[in-house]
Structure prediction request, 102 residues.
Amino acid sequence: MGSTVVVVSASPILLQIAGAFAGGLRGDELLVETRLLSRRAEWRRLLPAADVVFADALAAPVVGEARPRRLRELRLLGESDLVRVRKALNMAAPRPRGGLCA
Prediction:
């Protein structure tokens, strides 16, 4: 008997990667449905049949409101890596020159 996996993301590229990866794991035994977060009616209709739902960090709070049986947040970066990226982005942000500072 097969399993149904639903993947919800705000990113079409992440959906392609996740679908290809998950589909290659178990072949015909695994039905993988990928849906964009913006297609709310589509992924909500699939949730009752899903054995597990994966959602990226942006989609997880929204998908969680629909109360799927098993929801797992899918992250490509670990928490420590995310902190480093945020720090790097803050360092790269242009700083105001002269004038008043708040």
